[in-house]
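Please review this one:
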Amino acid sequence: CWPIETYGTVEQKKKWLIPLAKGEKLGCFALSEPGAGSDPGGLKLSATKVDGGYKLRGTKNWITNGKEADTCVVFANTDASKGSKGISAFLVDTKSKGF
């Protein structure tokens, strides 16, 4: 919940944070990747802007509650040329196609 509470918009807090805080939904946090572990500077998962949002491509692993969660905070590279400063967080519904 912390990333959503701290950095989320009012709309994101209403949609995602309130159900998580009430215990109505379960969340997870996707940072770790094969070959990078928990080092954000080594992230390979990319996020490309498309009509209506972003397309995320890559693999995450060791995600506690990943299979059970309803909502996931996923970290991805939006600008690899900026190193760790080019990383963004995305709120993803785990029922999304390809999750």
